[in-house]
Amino acid sequence: MDDKIFHWEKGKCLVFDDAFPHEVWNDTEATRVVLFLQFKRPLRQPGKVLGDLFLAAMRYSPYVQEARRNFNAWEAAQQRIERG
Fold it and tell me: How far is CA 26 from the centre of its chain?
């Protein structure tokens, strides 16, 4: 296994495949925010079922539901502004 270290740079994206063992550090006082993207990939069973269950669980998690409510509130506020 390669022991590679990648560093995030301000203003840039860092994408990696978390199917492989990895570690992440935040050695700063700042809050770390992660945009987690799950790419559909062809998997054999039981990996496909587990991946689908994970995605479904995330969609209905309180964390994602709160983000949806916040986004919908922001959209409604933008529409009110545009209507004057």
Answer: 17
